[in-house]
């Protein structure tokens, strides 16, 4: 439709419209000019109506175009915001994957001591609240961890199953050390040092405070247990008790049958003590000397180690003055340290009140933990009564015959004993 505002009024007075206004003049009786004026007025009215309609339509079209433009602009802005949000999310995700470096205090210096670092395998065990041998926290274990970390690349990973899902973890978190020892095969000094570092890392692993306190009391009670002073195998008894009880504690926690590990079971302590003494007596009965391990294999690995009793080598002057086997006797059938009998019986548990002749009162008896003590309650050296004798010189007061009390000999050469 053309713009009606551009239209011009026809010349109704011209020859083209002469027939029309002549007919209208004849029909109406009006003057010719009046007829022409009426025709012009009619056209002008129609023209104005068309112009008004045109303008209204144009305004409506302009509004529609403006609405469309606003919608387009709004869509473009929404798309831009979405792109910006996506870019920000990708940047955030990218930042999350980047290694983080925390800040530091400009006034703080390194501490006076640096806590040794055990292996990633041991740390992972603690983070999972699982049992781990104390060896990993000993000086030897930390040195082994340092050596192992150099052999395994830090960017080497392995697959692991966690809560029915496969996860990727550093390979070092799965590698147990071949040099690891069970707790009862540690030296007692290594045990004490290892448990201190173990408690430090248990705390760093965010174990429940109740469990940490119970473990701390557990180690304190064992370190200060009376059996360490009352039995020659006291330290070894403590190591075996710690090894067995701590493993059982973890097993029972997994079954929701946990117990207070800090409460020491004295019955179990005595049972372990008797078990270890039985091994010593069995070796004595079989005349099998306890071999002294080499410097590099001080402790032999087994499910539970046989008790080790160190023996000091005497100097040549001491050997000439006292004899190589002080307190030792003949290499025939061993005499029982209690009744001095050489006939077959259970010398490991013998607690006879009389000597082999059934009439002479015995000079020694056994205590509740299996030690040999004199009738006045003084402890006697068990090795002094054995065929091999005892070379140690730090407990000469216990070097007395269990048969008569004389300090010049042991049970094997006691004149009260049954003759071989």
Account of the protein in words:
This protein has helices at 18-28, 32-97, 120-127, 139-151, 188-204, 209-223, 227-230, 234-254, 266-285, 316-322, and strands at 157-162, 165-170, 364-366, 372-374. It has a two-stranded antiparallel sheet with strand order 1-2. By secondary structure, the chain is mainly alpha-helical. The chain is 43% helix and 4% strand. It is built from ten helices and four strands, in the order ααααββααααααββ.
* Spatial shape: rod-shaped
Indicate the proportion of strand residues: under 5%
Structural class: mainly alpha
Question: End-to-end distance, in Å?
Answer: 144 Å
Task: Considering the chains and any ligands shown, give keywords for the structure.
420 residues, mainly alpha, two-stranded antiparallel ribbon
What is the topological layout?
Layout (H helix, E strand, L loop, with lengths): L17 H11 L3 H66 L22 H8 L11 H13 L5 E6 L2 E6 L17 H17 L4 H15 L3 H4 L3 H21 L11 H20 L30 H7 L41 E3 L5 E3 L46
Antiparallel strand pairs: 1-2, 3-4
Helix pairs in contact: 1-2, 5-6, 8-9
How would you briefly describe this protein structure?
This protein is mainly alpha-helical. Helices cover 43% and strands 4% of the residues.
